[in-house]
Write a structure and sequence with these properties.
heterodimer; A: 262 residues; Rossmann fold; four-stranded antiparallel beta sheet; 37% helix; B: 393 residues; 7 helices; 20 strands; 20% helix; binds adenosine-5'-diphosphate; binds magnesium ion
Chain lengths: 262, 393
């Protein structure tokens, strides 16, 4: 069962508007794969479509992971298969504390069909110990455990909480959608460290790092860099491609791909 | 011995006499009866009046059951109303009807004329209690509950009170509760309408709040088949405050209406209202609210939030908020309202964390109610209510 993520000819719409126009991409196990692209090129659409957001309609294509076309799975089943999406804009859930939310997420991952949840759920002491350790490592104050999830959190706090969730759930395939936006350099280092720890712990883990700037890639070092434009992957290269984009902007690629007239 | 019970539709002066009651109370009841006989039927925009028709309603021989759910805080007077009218005459005469006058509505007038029992609670001057007082009332099948409750906090007093209606009697219940807060008093009041599914309930709950006094009011409205609750906070004193939250759950044929009225009368009064409603199945809930900022009030701060979640397509909720301002000196007046299904973005986010859709809906709804449930002062009661709501959604 391959833990490669293989995206084949993926087309997706919002309403009547086609946003993804045939995306082809493979994220190999144990690799960090960056997707860069200008605003509006479809990066968030791609990550939301992979995860199964109900607003996006897949009109063609497949996404294979661990032997299944995951487009046929419910959203929570994709998560339980090891997929994780760190949201560009995390949602707040008033009235649900970070701790209770995390416990439900961990237990959701541990739930087995036909088995009593009391048998599968994480014992409280173990959960408390883990969340405390992870919060400390990410520099998140313990008081956040009792706050309502993302309710009134700053942009940076939300992003740390995304990575906290990722550390607790230990996905085998993580998609990080502009996790760097809204982070100062210290927060960027802490968050990147959190990701790198996970990658080191699991040699099979794949990471799809979506970013607008190459700054993040100084801390999370990609093996492969793809460029997305107008709903397609238009270039693929090594880490040096990110540096070149940083230096020259996206226009030179736009010209090469679409010609001068565009 | 089968005595024929008086029909509400044709009450006589003799029907509302209670043996051995003091003369002042007899006079008061007759005033209630006169008002009942002369007042028009109310104009209720959303409540089905036929569910509360007088044709089938009779007075009961049984006055209901009244229990104290936890130890009363020391120093607080807690006694049945039928005794208090003899033992606390001065307090009674000063306060009975002070918040809900005999003639404010046909149903309040009926209650004034015919109430049989209820709770009297009195907290003396400057007595600050912390132990929550839990008062429960119920009634048997085939009965009409006519209950009158009076809570008086003297200057500087402090009380945490839970008043709970529970059980499946009836089908008719008519409950009036008056909450009188002296200057500087603090009342944490949880009012729970958790009647069984056969009950037709009319409630009047009215607070009068003195200078620098505060009421923290949490209303739970999950029971009954039909409920029509007129709740009112009168911020009369300068610097008086209300922090008012409510949780309503209507499912399976229930029609629950809350009509909260808020009156800003004094100077520098402050109100926060946060009303939450969940409707499911064929449930129907109405928020019919009114905020009045009266002439003579100054520097008022008022904020109303009301939110409704629909868990099924047939379920209905109506929101009819009103605001009437008779002064040009308001510091802040705000209103926010939402109504609709559980947010798709929240659901997607939670499912993307491996939480099943049904569990996610459940958590979102319980989270919706969390701020008000969190204020129920007795842990065991909070757990019971939480579990009861959880089981219904
Ligand atoms: N909810 C939406 N409704 C309509 N169009 C949308 C919506 N979300 C995104 N789009 C459009 O889809 C395109 C891609 O957006 P997005 O995937 O967010 O890009 P990126 O993440 O690369 O900035 C843009 O043209 C954007 O305007
Ligand atoms: Mg984006």
């Amino acid at each position: 069962m391959s833990s490669e993520l293989v995206i084949k000819n993926l087309h997706a719409n919002i309403g009547d508007k086609e946003i993804l126009k045939g995306v082809n991409l493979t994220v190999k196990p144990g690799t960090i794969h960056a997707i860069m692209g200008p605003n509006g090129s479809g990066k968030s659409t791609l990550s939301n479509t992979i995860m199964g957001h109900p607003s996006y309609t897949v009109t063609a294509g497949e996404v294979w992971y661990k032997g299944q076309n995951i487009l046929e799975l419910e959203v929570d089943q994709r998560a339980k298969l090891g997929m994780f999406l760190a949201f560009q804009y995390p949602v707040s859930i008033p009235g649900v504390t970070v701790a209770n939310f995390m416990r439900a997420a961990v237990n959701g991952h541990r739930a087995v069909e036909g088995k009593d949840t009391r048998e599968t759920q994480i014992p409280m002491p173990q959960f408390r110990k883990e969340i405390r350790e992870k919060m400390a490592a990410l520099g998140v104050d313990e008081a956040f455990a009792r706050r309502y999830l993302n309710d009134g959190f700053s942009g940076g706090e939300k992003k740390r909480i995304e990575i906290l969730q990722m550390s607790m759930l230990k996905p085998s395939m993580a998609i990080m959608d502009e996790t760097d936006s809204g982070l100062d350099i210290d927060a960027l280092k802490v968050v990147s460290q959190g990701v790198n720890v996970l990658v080191q712990a699991n040699s099979e883990m794949g990471v799809l790092v979506i970013t607008h700037y190459q700054r993040l890639l100084n801390y999370i070092k990609p093996h492969v860099v793809s460029v997305m434009m107008e709903g397609r992957i238009v270039r693929e290269g090594g880490p040096e491609l990110a540096l070149e984009l940083e230096e020259r902007g996206y226009d030179f690629i736009r010209e090469e791909v679409f010609g001068n007239g565009n | 011995m089968a005595t024929k019970l008086p029909a509400i539709a044709s009450l006589s002066a003799a029907d509302v006499l209670v043996a051995n009651e003091p003369a002042w109370l007899q006079t008061w009841r007759q005033a209630g009866l006169a008002a009942f006989n002369t007042l028009e039927m109310p104009y209720w925009r959303r409540t089905d009046l036929t569910a509360f028709g007088f044709a089938d309603m009779q007075l009961s021989a049984d006055s209901g059951t009244f229990r104290i759910g936890a130890d009363a805080p020391p120093g607080v007077v807690v006694m049945p109303m039928h005794l208090a009218v003899h033992e606390h005459v001065t307090l009674m005469q000063a306060n009975l009807g002070a918040a809900v006058a005999v003639n404010v509505s046909k149903y309040a007038a009926l209650n004034a004329a015919t109430w049989r029992d209820g709770w009297f609670v009195y907290v003396p001057k400057n007595l600050e209690t912390t132990l929550p007082l839990h008062l429960i009332q119920g009634f048997g099948a085939g009965n009409t509950l006519m209950s009158r409750n009076l809570v008086v906090l003297e200057r500087g007093a402090r009380l945490t009170l839970v008043e709970q209606l529970m059980g499946n009697g009836g089908p008719y219940s008519n409950v009036v509760t008056e909450l009188i807060l002296g200057d500087g008093a603090t009342l944490k009041y949880t009012g729970m309408q958790t009647w069984g599914s056969a009950v037709h309930h009319v409630g009047h709950v009215v607070a009068k709040v003195g200078n620098d006094a505060t009421i923290e009011w949490s209303a739970i409205n999950t029971g009954a088949l039909h409920a029509h609750i007129e709740a009112e906070t009168n911020l009369i004193g300068n610097g008086s405050r209300v922090d008012w939250m409510a949780a309503t759950v209507a499912s399976d044929g229930q029609r629950l209406l809350t009509a909260p009225w808020l009156r800003h009368v004094g100077r520098s009064t402050e109100a926060h209202m946060d009303f939450k409603t969940v409707v499911k199945g064929s449930g129907y809930a109405t928020f019919d609210g009114m905020i009045k900022i009266e002439g003579g009030s100054t520097d008022t701060i008022t904020r109303l939030e009301e939110h409704a979640l629909h868990l099924s397509p047939q379920a209905r909720s109506d929101s009819i908020p009103g605001l009437k301002i008779d002064t040009n000196n308001v510091q802040k007046a705000g209103h926010a309202s939402t109504s609709g299904e559980v947010d798709d973005e929240q659901l997607f986010y939670m499912q993307a964390r491996g939480i099943s859709k049904s569990e996610a809906v459940h958590m979102i709804v319980m989270g919706f109610f969390e701020p008000v449930l969190d204020r129920i002062p007795l842990e065991s009661l909070r757990e019971q209510v939480t579990a009861a709501i959880a089981a219904r959604i």
